[in-house]
Amino acid sequence: MTHPALIRRDHLSTALRLAADGLPVLPLRKGKVPFANCPACLYISCGGRPHMKTPGSCTCPEPCHGWAAATTDPWTLNSPQWATAWRDAAAVAYHPGGAGLTVVDLDHADAVAWARACLLATRTVRTTRGQHWIYQGAMPSANGVRDGVDIKSTMSYARWRGPGTGTITGLPPEVRALAVKEPAPVQPVPYAFTTPTRAAEGACRHRTPAFLDRGIAMAEQRITEASSGIHATVYRTFLAVLSAHGRCGCLTDAHVARLFTAAQAKGESPRHCTDAWTNARTRLGL
Q: Does residue 110 share a domain with residue 134?
């Protein structure tokens, strides 16, 4: 039986070898989880946030901030501050995205069978219950993209389980597509739009439907092209539409639905759309 102390020294040796090959590494404690933040950063009292960090950017003397502790610096890995972590380490992990890699974590036999049928063959590493498929190229990480399938790349870590077999291939679009969330269905206009009664025959200046259609299309474009201040842009656009088209009786539920659809596609909730529309109507006295 191998003595635990030898296993711990072997973890450090493995980490140094991987770091020399350009793979950012960190120790894992029992349970395959990173070590807790150092006392100075306990409960994020330092103000740092893991999602704002890059590998090696944490300047704490001890392994800190989970995946962001991963480093290729041999001096850090061999430092006295990391000695306690290596002494208690149960495994070595690495940050795939920091090395420009993506790991497709297949957690059971059915997931492995799916990958063999649907994904481009690449280097594979056996795990306790399944396999890691490793691709060249980084992408956002995502858990539970399919039953038993996780994506580990940027802002994530994977346990080192050996070099595996096969040649690493480029990250295929089928894997990137796994992390793309389907857009939430656009909710219908949450209330019945009351069309104002036309004041007098001939009062409408929209002599052709094209004038109103162009106005709605321009409003949709203004919302769609907004890169910031979405709430304000939606409100101002609703206000402009109502100012131009809200009193003559030509604006219909279908037109309002188009505006709500454009706003929701930019991330606005149905409630925000309703509030913005109501506030614009109130300001104009409609």
A: yes
Q: Kindly state the DSSP code that residue 248 receives in the 8-state scheme.
A: S
Neighbours of 143 (CB within 10 A): 11
Among the candidates 93, 111, 130, a domain finishes at 93
Q: Which residues face 26 on adjacent strands? A: 93
- Which residue segment(s) compose the domain that 250 sits in? 209-284
Residues 1 and 86 in one domain: yes
Residues 229 and 271 in one domain: yes
- What's 161's DSSP letter? -
So what's the pLDDT on residue 30? 87
The residue among 80, 48, 123, 60 whose CA lies nearest residue 71 is 60
> Is the domain of 146 the same as that of 66?
no
Measured in degrees and rounded to the nearest 5, phi and psi for residue 135 equal -120, 155
**Angstrom distance (rounded) from CA 40 to CA 146:** 38
C-alpha of 107 from chain center: 21
With a CB cutoff of 8 Å and minimum separation 6, the contacts of 262 are 219, 220, 223, 224
Neighbouring CB atoms inside 10 A of 137's CB total: 17
Reported as a single tens digit per residue, the pLDDT across 156-180 is 999 999 999 999 999 999 999 888 7
Q: Are 234 and 279 in contact (CB under 8 A)?
A: no
- Please name which of 260, 250, 192, 280 lies closest in space to residue 220, comparing C-alpha atoms: 260
Structure pTM? 0.61
